[in-house]
């Protein structure tokens, strides 16, 4: 009460001005990341294309040349994927990511992702579902989410350890679980893994080829579809990512 109303008003104005400046700075940063990613992605995609074409067409490369070209191609490809992920997150931040929501039978989609993984990674992926489960989702986005989670299950477990995709209905919601019996995640890291660029063990994770953006994108996509994602895990025993969607 000791403050005159004009002082309070002034304070509110200053606060609003600070907020608006902060928002402008954040928006500029988002634009910058988006523009840089876009400008780099195009030429780098050309580089990857040429390197792969040289590798395919050359029959007389010595061991050094072969290895150098393969490393260059895979690192450039990894960077293209990083730029794609950054573009996707910048799009999400700007609120311009659109979802084509429809009522989907999840069983088919889950089976499709399991089949693709088995084909490309040579790993056994078991689907468990006792009934047909439907949910509201954007088909392509949900597929992207599942591929990301199953890819991680493959990366962070040994080849003989099973990967299971479970489908069920709970409290009028659809639940998809992606379970692995791999290295697991320590309790204190379990919320942090959804942050951008966060990786549990930098050295070990780097060998797996990602940049720590996969789960940040998964969370953004799932929440964009009105769902949620959590993880349950024990180091040395494995991890289960639990995806809940509206029906
Ligand atoms: P990355 O590209 O590093 O895989 P993600 O965002 O997909 O990035 O995952 C972030 C981190 O979470 C990973 O670096 C890894 O340490 C941990 N992680 C993700 N999935 C699993 C899993 N299924 N088992 C164990 N650790 C995992």
From TrEMBL:
What's the chief localization of this chain? membrane
> What are the record keywords, sorted?
Kinase, Membrane, Phosphoprotein, Transferase, Transmembrane, Transmembrane helix, Two-component regulatory system
- Where does this polypeptide localize? Membrane
Give the Gene Ontology MF terms in alphabetical order: phosphorelay sensor kinase activity
Q: Which reaction does it catalyse?
A: ATP + protein L-histidine = ADP + protein N-phospho-L-histidine
**Does the keyword field hold S-adenosyl-L-methionine?**
no
This protein's GO cellular component annotations are: membrane
Among its keywords, does the record have rRNA-binding?
no
EC category: transferase
List the EC numbers from the record: 2.7.13.3
Q: Where is the Histidine kinase domain?
A: 35-247
Which protein, by its recorded name, is this?
histidine kinase
Q: From the entire protein, which fragment is shown? A: 232 to 478 of 478
């Amino acid at each position: 009460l000791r403050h005159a109303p004009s002082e309070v008003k002034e304070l509110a104005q200053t606060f609003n001005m600070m907020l608006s400046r902060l928002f402008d700075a954040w928006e500029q940063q988002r634009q910058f990341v988006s523009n840089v990613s876009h400008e780099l992605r195009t030429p780098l995609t050309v580089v990857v294309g040429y390197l792969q074409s040289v590798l395919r067409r050359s029959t007389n490369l010595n061991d050094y040349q072969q290895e150098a070209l393969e490393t260059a191609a895979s690192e450039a490809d990894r960077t293209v994927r990083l730029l794609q992920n950054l573009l996707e997150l910048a799009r999400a931040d700007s609120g311009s990511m659109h979802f084509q929501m429809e009522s989907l039978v999840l069983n088919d989609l889950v089976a499709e992702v399991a089949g693709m993984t088995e084909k490309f990674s040579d790993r056994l992926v078991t689907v468990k579902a006792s009934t047909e489960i439907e949910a509201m989702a954007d088909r392509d986005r949900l597929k992207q989410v599942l591929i990301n989670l199953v890819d991680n299950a493959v990366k962070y477990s040994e080849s003989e350890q099973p990967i299971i995709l479970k489908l069920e209905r709970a409290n009028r919601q659809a639940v998809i679980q992606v379970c692995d019996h791999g290295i697991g995640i320590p309790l204190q890291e379990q919320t942090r893994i959804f942050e951008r660029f966060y990786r549990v063990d930098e050295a070990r994770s780097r060998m797996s080829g990602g940049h720590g953006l996969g789960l940040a994108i998964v969370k953004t996509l799932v929440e964009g579809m009105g769902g949620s994602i959590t993880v349950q895990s024990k180091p040395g025993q494995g991890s289960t990512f639990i995806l809940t969607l509206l029906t």
